[in-house]
From TrEMBL, chain B:
<keyword id="KW-0456">Lyase</keyword>
<dbReference type="GO" id="GO:0016836">
    <property type="term" value="F:hydro-lyase activity"/>
</dbReference>
<feature type="domain" description="Fe-S hydro-lyase tartrate dehydratase beta-type catalytic">
    <location>
        <begin position="10"/>
        <end position="175"/>
    </location>
</feature>
<comment type="similarity">
    <text>Belongs to the class-I fumarase family.</text>
</comment>
<dbReference type="InterPro" id="IPR004647">
    <property type="entry name" value="Fe-S_hydro-lyase_TtdB-typ_cat"/>
</dbReference>
<dbReference type="Pfam" id="PF05683">
    <property type="entry name" value="Fumerase_C"/>
</dbReference>
<protein>
    <submittedName>
        <fullName>Fe-S-containing hydro-lyase</fullName>
    </submittedName>
</protein>
<dbReference type="InterPro" id="IPR036660">
    <property type="entry name" value="Fe-S_hydroAse_TtdB_cat_sf"/>
</dbReference>
Amino acid sequence: MKYLDSFEVVKLVEELCIEANIRLPEDVEYGLVKAKEHEQSLYGQAVLDDLLQNVEIARKEKMPLCQDCGMTVVFVDWGQEVLLVGKSLQESVDEGVRRAYLGSYLRRSVVSDPLYDRKNTGDNTPAVVHLRFVEGSEVKITVVPKGMGSENASALAMLSPGEGEEGVIDFVKDVVARKGQNACPPLVVGVGIGGNFESAPILAKRALLRPIGCRNADERYAGLEEKMLRHVNELGLGPGGYGGKVTVLDVLAEFMPTHIAGLPVAVNISCNATRHAGGRLKGREL
Amino acid sequence: MKGRKVRTPLEEDIVKDLHVGERVLLSGVIYTARDAAHKRMAETLKRGENPPFDLRGQVIYYAGPAPAPPGVPIGSIGPTTSGRMDRYTPMLLEMGLKGMIGKGRRNPEVIAAIRANGAVYFGATGGAAALLAKRVKASRVIAYEDLGPEAIYELLVEDFPLLVVADSEGNDLYEIGPGQWSSSRGERIGEDR
């Protein structure tokens, strides 16, 4: 048996929130560079120039890449041999978020009541925490600041199994066609296939953590990703949505078992600032 | 970026001469307002009271900035999705608002109101928030301070880089732009409301 003091979780979450908001992951930056080489639309090229300059300014001046520093989504893979001592996991994560957003000039964008008061909580808490217990004595934390402009463009469909691959591709394409221009293209599209009504969207969000350009390990799903990428880019929405060849940098799909009667498909749209940062903590000897 | 230099407040003849696809470098005073500020302004107008600033000839930027670190006028400030403001926009245009800065599609009612009132909708690059902050020279909150990032900020901008995405003739770049790059646009479904 090992342990971790909850304060270590606080500190790591704080660091990761700051890093994720300020530094675009290398794979996404590389995706923007490749897009610039590939894009032929002048409007599209101008948008990509702006975005690449923005990455540079944000990193150099430690400014958030986007004013929407998101709702903070935190994926935690907790080694089951580790005991958390002190505050609860949710409280520890929230304290890390609070310190980062208040201390590092990140925008606080969370309201306490969705429908009536809509009063800002003032510190960007609570975070959305997705916890998995895993083997071992290590804790892996990934922070994903997720802006609402792209969340608002996301969707879930409960397809019939008979709709098959074509149904999945059509749905993904539809979602991007409807609202892709609002979500700061070039986009990264996460697709979660299978599970049920609540697990498919989490799977889609998890898909966004995979480096872009890196294909699903299952050949069939890797092929599906390629097809979806091609079909979605054929929409011609382009960078900024002004028209162009590069509407999405990549489509990343994950799958899981589902029910005999179902084919859930969740599409989680992410923007040109697809941000995430991860780190690890090792359990200490008791 | 190159572009036509335009100053606020916007004059009618200049707005009429701005066309979809044209690059603009905007200088002068503009005002931020997003969801909550629009809701309050609409309630104010419905009560027959004056909005927090005279809308005539002015430009609203759909944006909520990140907090400013010490010594700089503003934090990162890119555009938010304009479509959420569509329900309030025709009323503001009728009150004399001449320009809007944002990102994303507007509904047909807004495009029609832009045309009817001789206004313009500019696109700023969504996601380029740190870059855009560099073009803001001064800022102060003039209304709804309790809304935090959703307060109305008066910004002094210099050569703020924009693209005309909907013009006073009713043209809409989001509608016509993708056409030549698309091999399957016919299947596009519905309007984004």
